[in-house]
Amino acid sequence: METKEITGISKYSTFGLRKEWLNDFLNKGDDFFDNNSLGPKQLLALRYYLKDAEILEKNRSKNRLNFFFYNLLISLLNRNSYLVWCILWCNLVYNSNLFKWWSNLSKGVYKKSQIDTFLGDFYGKLNRSIKNASCSLVGTFERTPIGEELKQGIVKKEGRERIVIKEGDPKLDPIVVLYNLYKFAERNDIYEFSIYEIENKPLSPQKVFCTDSKYIEKLVIPYAYQNVIYLDLKNDFLKIKLRRDLRSIDILNKYVGGEIE
Q1: CA 20 to 30 Å from 217, out of 14, 48, 53, 239?
Q2: What digits encode the pLDDT tens for the residues 94-149?
């Protein structure tokens, strides 16, 4: 396998993201960094998670809140916390090499030791950084809804070994898929495609959520012509057209504002 450069995959130290950390942060906002119970290394790890989740501004050295996205999350949280975790998982996959790597693995049952090995093979080395990253990955699945509720990594114990079941096929709200499609378009500068054309491409909704194209297409078709997406049927081949004047964040804003039902 082609080796890759290790770029920040161990930045979370050995800590996975934790539901209680995120909830506490969302409740306190900017005040969280002056009022929390985390140790210095835990706090540093959380900062990286918040940046990769796009809750903190990524290119700022200080803890600068992304107020627009933060306020959208608060509005969404009041409606459906599961929806919030779906959005955050999408952002983590887009911004973290560790979670992007996992999203490209097939469904299956993986021992923690196997994850170490596979991640080491991918990066061409198996060292402490790789093992720390693996701990962060498994810890995130263990301590947040991403693992069991979103079915991206259900963690169980098998003797002394932990195993991670990548089950996939979570129940998704169409707004999550639309958000993911717009992020995909922004990243690749492609705004017209069929769902089936992108199913094997990294960062597609199929890869991010470990699900199939038929399900994704079924979710988005009813939203055609709602001033968000358009459909084009040529030679019995259905293509999605996205608006270039909209961004993924606009999709969430429209949803919160009631323009997408």
Answers
A1: 53
A2: 999 999 999 999 999 999 999 999 999 999 989 999 999 999 999 999 999 999 99
Q: Which residues of 147-156 are buried (b: 16+ CB within 10 A; e: fewer)?
A: bbebbbbbbe
What is the pTM for the complete model shown?
Answer: 0.94
**How would DSSP label each residue in the chain?**
-------STTTTTTPPP-HHHHHHHHHHGGGGGGS----HHHHHHHHHHHHHTTSB-TT-SS--B-HHHHHHHHHHHHH-HHHHHHHHHHHHHHH-HHHHHHHTSPSEEEEHHHHHHHHHHHHT--SHHHHHHHHHHHHHHHHSHHHHTS-S-EEEEETTEEEEEE-------HHHHHHHHHHHHHHHT--EE-TTTTTTSTTSHHHHHT--HHHHHHHHGGGBTSSSEEEEEETTEEEEEE-TT--HHHHHHHHHTTS--
Beta bridge mates, 228: none
